[in-house]
């Protein structure tokens, strides 16, 4: 079974079944959603590798779904829609879609678009692995993954195991908004509401240990989650002896 997981968001049962059968035949894992609400829940809960998204859904427009997902994730989104006007394509792509496939479509073209997305993701993962070293630096923050230590202004931060794990999760996803569910799943293996409350406590203690400028590093997205910001290095500071 292909480890790649695709979320199929389509309210038309025959098309939804066609896509699902195609994916199953080619050994892809898949999730199904019939409306926008289900799509957002599935996307936030399962973090699929790619989303196939119809724009004409019964409860909300697909463009709105793209915008909502882009608030917290860069997961690739391939629009599959009967809307063929250039304005519709531009609107979806401007909202954050990665590709646009017009109905009716052939199964071969659908799979070809998916393979292109897989290759793009694989290249990004290679680049990330090449660029990532055992030392993470961001402004005055440094994490030594091998030693399991974090430093601020060259002074070691006295972090608890969970605080350190939380900091590493954010650091390894710098620039991305991580949902409460994603973070709690990574730390505790589940996304219970009680764990979200615990997450807020650990985030507060982590911020305190990072110091007065902690907001420069960790951004809160109310009701969604947190993001590690990339802190720009002051060139004048670098030139000081």
Automatic annotation (TrEMBL):
Residue ranges flagged as DNA-binding region: 133-230
Modified residues (4-aspartylphosphate): 54
Residue span, Response regulatory domain: 5-118
CDD domains: REC_OmpR_KdpE-like, trans_reg_C
Pfam families referenced in this protein's UniProt entry, alphabetically: Response_reg (PF00072), Trans_reg_C (PF00486)
Keyword list, A-Z: DNA-binding, Phosphoprotein, Transcription, Transcription regulation
Boundaries of every OmpR/PhoB-type domain copy: 133-230
Entry keyword annotation includes Heme: no
Job description of the protein: May play the central regulatory role in sporulation. It may be an element of the effector pathway responsible for the activation of sporulation genes in response to nutritional stress. Spo0A may act in concert with spo0H (a sigma factor) to control the expression of some genes that are critical to the sporulation process.
Name of the molecule in the record: Stage 0 sporulation protein A homolog
